[in-house]
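Need a sequence for this fold. Nothing fancy.
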């Protein structure tokens, strides 16, 4: 029962991040600014981002639940890492799409990727096969970082 509670809590906060991030984008992907950018040839269709993030946050909720159950709750370091990734994830949308600060956005997404990479390897012995649940997040951030970097370098 406690594990289900953790899953629900992490689902709530993960999807809250997606919702706030979407609001902070201010319709960014449909703006003239974004549409006029020279984007990477491997940029997915717009709908792929929504599907990807929905799945990633679903898996991440299960990962965090599995990890927090290993600690019988959130220890201070895990809470700090989760909160930091939450704020980095949400703020990227505002920085990149709303403020058009592509270089700052690149720094933020690199920090987010490094943080998720750190979590992946730091806790691999705690969650073992559960590490597979964070891999979509890590992989998608690598793609998203390359898309942001392409925009920085080609615009």
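Here you go.
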């Amino acid at each position: 029962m406690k594990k289900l509670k953790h899953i629900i809590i992490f689902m709530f906060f993960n999807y809250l991040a997606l919702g706030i991030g979407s609001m902070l984008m201010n319709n960014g992907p449909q703006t003239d600014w974004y549409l006029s950018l020279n984007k990477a040839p491997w940029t997915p269709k717009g709908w792929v981002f929504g599907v990807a993030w929905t799945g990633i946050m679903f898996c991440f909720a299960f990962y965090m639940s599995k990890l927090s159950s290993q600690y019988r709750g959130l220890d201070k370091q895990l809470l700090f890492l989760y909160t930091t990734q939450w704020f980095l994830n949400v703020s990227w949308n505002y920085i990149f799409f709303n403020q058009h600060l592509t270089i700052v956005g690149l720094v933020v997404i690199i920090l987010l990727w490094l943080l998720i990479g750190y979590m992946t390897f730091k806790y691999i012995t705690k969650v073992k096969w559960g590490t597979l649940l964070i891999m979509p997040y890590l992989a998608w951030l690598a793609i998203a970082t390359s898309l942001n970097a392409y925009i920085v370098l080609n615009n």
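For context: Residues 102 and 152 are 6 Å apart (CA to CA).
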